[in-house]
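Posting here for the record, re: adenosine-5'-diphosphate.
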Amino acid sequence: MVLAIDVRQITKIYDGKIRALDGVDLEVNAADVFALLGPNGSGKTTLMRILTTQFRPTSGEAYSFGIDIIRNDAWVRKMIGYVPQETSVWTDISGFENLLIYSKIYGVPSSRRKKSISDALQIMGLEEMADGLVKKYSGGMVRRLEIACALLVKPKILFLDEPTIGLDPSARKAVWENLIFFKNEYGTTIFFNTHYMDEADLYSDHIAIIKRGKIVKSGTVNDLKHSLHSEVLLLDLKSHALDETALTDIRALDCVRDVVVSDSELRVFIDDADTALPKIMETLWRKGISIKKITTTRPTLDDVFLNYAGSITAVRKHSPQNAKGAPAWD
Amino acid sequence: MTFFNSLREMFAMIELELRRLRHDRTEIYTRAVQPILWLTVYGTVMSHVRDIPTNGIPYIDYITPGVLLQSTIFVSVFYGLTIVWERETGILKRLLVAPASRYATVIGRAVASGVRAVVQALIIFPVAILLGVKFISNPTYIAAAFLMLFMISGGFAALSIFVASLMKTRERFMGIGQAMIMPLFFASNALYPIKLMPPILQSIAFFNPLTYAVDAVRGLMISGDVANIPADFLAVIVFDILIFAVASISFRKIIE
Ligand SMILES: Nc1ncnc2c1ncn2[C@@H]1O[C@H](COP(=O)(O)OP(=O)(O)O)[C@@H](O)[C@H]1O
Ligand SMILES: [Mg+2]
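Prediction output follows.
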C-alpha cells in the first residue's frame, strides 16, 4: 500500500545554524489521522512547511502518495489542503467571501463553486454565520472557517498545524467533530501538529513524538502506552523542596525505570508496584520527605510523552522555587 | 497551466481588494482628506505666488496631477504593510500552498493595490472638479491618465513589497514608508517644475519614476500637451518590469 507521507532523513538548518529538524523519518498511512506531538520549538511547523512545499529541506527526501514533494511541488500542491497555525482568513470580509476568494485561488471551476462552498460550510457547521464579517467570529468559528477553506478542493491530505491552539474545550470538540465527520465522508488523510496530548490521544490513529528535531517514538496510541511496560506511581509530596540526592537515590533503585518531577508531584515508572512502593517510601523517609498522597495508574499518553520527550519541568529548572534552595535537576 | 492559475490568483486578489473596500469605505474617505487639503490650502495659497512658471496654468490645476499621484502612491506604498501583516498571520503561508506561481502572489497583490489606488483617485477627481480645476474633456486622455495612475501605483506597491521583504516588523516598515514617500514627492515635478530645483534634486528627479508619471498625467488631464507621453509610459513600464522582478525574487525572504 502506498504511503500518504513518507519522510526520509529530513534535515532543516535555518540560517546555517539553527538545526530545526535533525534526520526525521516518518511514515503516514493513507486515510489515517496522524498526530505529530511535541513541545514548542521541537520542529513540528518546520516539518509541516516542508511537507506543504513552502520551502525545501536542507537534506533528505519526502514523498506523498509516491510523488516527490521536493521536486514535484506543483503537483503536490494540487492534492493537499493546509491550515497554518496562525490565522489564514481575511477578517474584514465575510466567511462566505473568504471561501469564494479561496475557491478562485484554488481554481475550483465556476460550475462547481457554489456547491463546493455550501458543502464546506455545511461540513464545518458554519452555514448560519456565512454572511457575517469574520472579525465578529469566535476563535472556534475562525478555525472552522479556515478548515472549510482547505476543504474546497477535497484534498487527499489535510495538513493542520496546531488546529485547536488557544480554543476552549467546547470549541476544540466542535472542530474535531466536524473534522472527523469530513474524514469519514471522504477518506482524507489528516496530518496534524499538536502539543496537546489529549488531542493526540483522542483523535489520532498514529502518533509520532518529536523532540528537538528528532522523532523519538512513533506508533499507535496503544503501542506507545504499552511500550512503557510499566505502571506509574504518582506521589504527591508535602514539600516542594525535593533534593537531588533523593531523586538520584530513587533512580538508582532496581525496580525503578524512570522518574519525572513536576512541581510537588513525583511520577515514578515501575515494573511492579507491590515490590517497588516500600523501597521508594523508605528512600523518601530517609531524606525526611513526607508524602501527601499515593496513586498508582496505568501509563497515560502524558506518561508516554514525559518519558520520551522529557518533562516540562526539566525546561523550567530555574523556577523561583528551585532558586530558593533545592538544587536544579534535569 | 501555472500561467492560468496565476492569472486566476491575480483576479481573485483584485476581487478581494474590491470586496474589502465595499465593507469598509471609511479608509478611502479618510485617505482623501489629506490630498484635498493639499489642493485647497496649499494650492490656493501658492497660486498667489506668481513666480512659479506653470505655462499659464492655474497653480491649483498644475499640482492636481501630483496630488492625485501622491494619494495613490501613499496607498500602494502602505500596501507592503499588508504583506508584512499577512506574514505575521498565516495568509501568506497559505497562498504559497495554492496551485498558482509564487510570482502571481507578488504581482497579484501589487496589481490589486493598483486597483485600490485608482479607486482612491476616483474619489479625489470630482472634488478637484468642484474646486474649479479644469480637466481636458477628452475621455480617452482621462482614461489614459488613470491607466498611468494604475501602472505607477502597481510599481510602487511592488517596491513596497520589496522593502517589506527586508523588514521584519511592522513598526520598522512604517518608519521606512514615511521616509520614502515625502522625498519622492518633493524630488519630482509634482509641486514645481524641475528647472526650479537645485541640481542635486534635479538629478534625483530624473531617476524618480514619479516625475514621468506626473508629466504624463499632467499632459493628459490638464495641459493637453502629449508630446512626452510615449516616453513617460516607456519609463514607467521599465520601472514596473524592473521592480516586479526584484520584488518577486526577494519574496523568497518573506517566506522563510
Ligand atoms: N523562519 C525561521 N527562521 C529561523 N529559525 C526558525 C524559523 N522557524 C522556526 N525556527 C526555529 O526552528 C525551531 C523549530 O521551530 P518550529 O518548527 O516552529 O517548532 P514547533 O512548531 O514545534 O513549535 C525553533 O528553534 C525555532 O526557533
Ligand atoms: Mg509550530
